[in-house]
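Q: Predict the bound structure with 4-fluoro-L-phenylalanine.
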Amino acid sequence: MRQISQHGEWSSRLAFILAATGSAVGLGNIWKFPYIAGENGGGAFVLIYLLCILIIGIPIMMAEIMLGRRGRQSPINSMRTLATEAKASRYWSWLGWLGVIAGFLILSYYSVIAGWAMAYVVRVASGVFEGATADGVSHIFATFVADPEKLLAWHSLFMIVTMLVVARGVKGLERTVKFLMPALLAILILLVGYAMERGAFEEGVSFLFKADFTKMTSEGVLTAMGHAFFTLSLGMGAIMVYGSYLPSKVSIGSTTMLIGLADTVVALLAGLAIFPIVFANSMEPASGPGLIFQTLPIAFGHMAYGSIFGTLFFILLVFAAWSSSISLIEPAVAWLVENKKMSRMRSCIWAGLVTWGVGIGTVLSFNLTADVTFFGKTFFDILDYLTANIMLPLGGVCIAVFAGWVMSEEDSVKELSLKRQWLYKTWLFLVKFISPLAVVIVFLKSIDVI
Ligand code: PFF
Ligand code: NA
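A: Predicted complex:
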């Protein structure tokens, strides 16, 4: 077994926590969580999502980090090595492939949305939102997404910046994340403060936390579960690849808890900032992917120094997206470097070009091809559904099954080195039975089999 990865190692536990938190906290928390919670009726959806984080997400994250650290290579090669070591089928390396493809597909649309955030940095800074009404803000958003050339330009810029950083190696990211997270948290708290003062705060809180299960569909449950994987960056090798750079003495359990907590706090704060604005302005919670771009500018347009805070907020959002997007493409790049013997630079150019190209489909799905649908879904909807609701949970279950059933207990005990026996037993029970069963049941229910 390799002692350290050929791509190097994190300098410390903190460095890993920062990078993994950077991967987890992103558009998923601030852009996606609020709008899917809005579309699925709030409270009950949020509760199911939190439950999924706790009993599926956390144990699988531990498993994924563990497999990465033992494999010490790109997910594809790590899985192959670990399977050989456990005398299991070589087909386990398919799991790595699934992840590489999911990463490509997610990044292709993630970059388009990150491009929106970039565009909003400029818009908010220009002061167009000062004193704006809800209608005005919605109009600005609608005009923006109707323009394919603009979306394409921002998408391209975001891809270039991302690939430049990946080309230099991901381990330079520690410093950025270290200042990013606290700053993002501070602005979110400021926004929640605004929502308390000027928004319909109680209505927002009760929408988010009052569970009404009659509003839940099995489709909604699948979305909540899929989002637990998406938001924690699980099921596709992103966290596995970061785990492969993790020094062997770091405790996986407590590190995972910290990352999960940070991710959840950011998502809930985003929800608490957004929904009071939605209700105070008689807007529709189910406004879809434009939700934050149609609500937060209202807050920035009316608070003191709003343009400054707003600019800062969208800059931070771009950085958060960027530290996530790096981890989306890292499994692919690590594999190209290992197996195709390409330089890191060349690997980045190829991976970046393909992702950028697929992203054009998403750009167009908000304007020119908005009416081209398949089962009522646009190109963007399909990519989102396929990756978050199917590929990530599927990858996650495979990781759980591998960690719980294929890897020997002797190895997993050693690798996790949890302080208490009952903690290990709980983890093992969750990855062996609960997570796989839960995912399978939710899958089957969503296609009406049970
Ligand atoms: N966790 C990221 C977010 O919430 O924005 C998105 C993501 C990053 C998903 C990396 C998957 C991944 F591998
Ligand atoms: Na997240």
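A: The mean pLDDT is 94.
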